[in-house]
């Protein structure tokens, strides 16, 4: 059996810790952000990984934004319905990721690098904020040829989900899947992933966005897009930003999540807002991965052929389950979505 949903992203192992504003200040990190660091540039921030790995409360959890969404979609769709492409090293970290995917029912379609370590992300938590510091490692070496090896699975899939973070790695791989989706009329969903994507990977985004039938982003990514692309509206005006991304494309939908504020869904015919699933503050463990869980729940709904409104609600539902767990994880217990 081939997966219905195919995802593409950067497989990372998360080193998650609760930390202090002082620790973030030491490396000039913002409390709510995602950045890349590179071993090759002798970036002093590379020291974070060793420091965090030696903190007593560190938790090693499966990460990589699109991989988190893939596990989320599988939580709803069941085993072998979701496949995930990405590049990893041949080491203990990738063994753990493969194990977590298998436990979640996700088919790992990894490209394996023999001499580069699996990517890692220090998830530095302060209250409800998270600062993500990533060393992509092997994830940076994904190539479109790897898709060809599994092209039968690509052809058998009914829809695709692309983490915007992958725009830093292989826009060619995204375009390859995008062309297939366009030719076959399959939904092609892209997430903007982080403000630095529209800011610093504008050309790659411009190249890939035309293939997207659905774009998912949060309010800060929307603002970064508006600024980077010089849109003629306030960077906080989600409806106007979405309208300008959709243009007159009858085949494009933009979905902006906005924390606890309603989610804005925009098509060529207009915008609608949907409430989130509120959760008692005391039940929140951490909000790291909430956006990934939203995307996972949304994709599961789309795979099941649900109405857009229901897909959004399934995203909100899965996000509320995920923020009650450490990291971008889902409950051990199987809860079943029922429409409110
Ligand atoms: C290219 N970058 C920076 C990244 C990431 C990333 N996933 C892919 N590429 N930076 C952070 N993440 C993941 O985001 C999740 C939380 O939404 C982390 O691994 C974390 O699991």
Automatic annotation (TrEMBL):
<dbReference type="Pfam" id="PF00294">
    <property type="entry name" value="PfkB"/>
</dbReference>
<dbReference type="GO" id="GO:0005524">
    <property type="term" value="F:ATP binding"/>
</dbReference>
<keyword id="KW-0660">Purine salvage</keyword>
<dbReference type="GO" id="GO:0006144">
    <property type="term" value="P:purine nucleobase metabolic process"/>
</dbReference>
<keyword id="KW-0067">ATP-binding</keyword>
<protein>
    <recommendedName>
        <fullName>Adenosine kinase</fullName>
        <ecNumber>2.7.1.20</ecNumber>
    </recommendedName>
</protein>
<feature type="domain" description="Carbohydrate kinase PfkB">
    <location>
        <begin position="25"/>
        <end position="333"/>
    </location>
</feature>
<comment type="similarity">
    <text>Belongs to the carbohydrate kinase PfkB family.</text>
</comment>
<comment type="function">
    <text>ATP dependent phosphorylation of adenosine and other related nucleoside analogs to monophosphate derivatives.</text>
</comment>
<dbReference type="InterPro" id="IPR002173">
    <property type="entry name" value="Carboh/pur_kinase_PfkB_CS"/>
</dbReference>
<dbReference type="GO" id="GO:0004001">
    <property type="term" value="F:adenosine kinase activity"/>
</dbReference>
<dbReference type="InterPro" id="IPR011611">
    <property type="entry name" value="PfkB_dom"/>
</dbReference>
<feature type="active site" description="Proton acceptor">
    <location>
        <position position="292"/>
    </location>
</feature>
<dbReference type="InterPro" id="IPR029056">
    <property type="entry name" value="Ribokinase-like"/>
</dbReference>
<dbReference type="InterPro" id="IPR001805">
    <property type="entry name" value="Adenokinase"/>
</dbReference>
<keyword id="KW-0547">Nucleotide-binding</keyword>
<keyword id="KW-0460">Magnesium</keyword>
<dbReference type="GO" id="GO:0005829">
    <property type="term" value="C:cytosol"/>
</dbReference>
<dbReference type="GO" id="GO:0044209">
    <property type="term" value="P:AMP salvage"/>
</dbReference>
<comment type="pathway">
    <text>Purine metabolism; AMP biosynthesis via salvage pathway; AMP from adenosine: step 1/1.</text>
</comment>
<keyword id="KW-0808">Transferase</keyword>
<dbReference type="GO" id="GO:0006166">
    <property type="term" value="P:purine ribonucleoside salvage"/>
</dbReference>
<keyword id="KW-0418">Kinase</keyword>
<dbReference type="GO" id="GO:0005634">
    <property type="term" value="C:nucleus"/>
</dbReference>
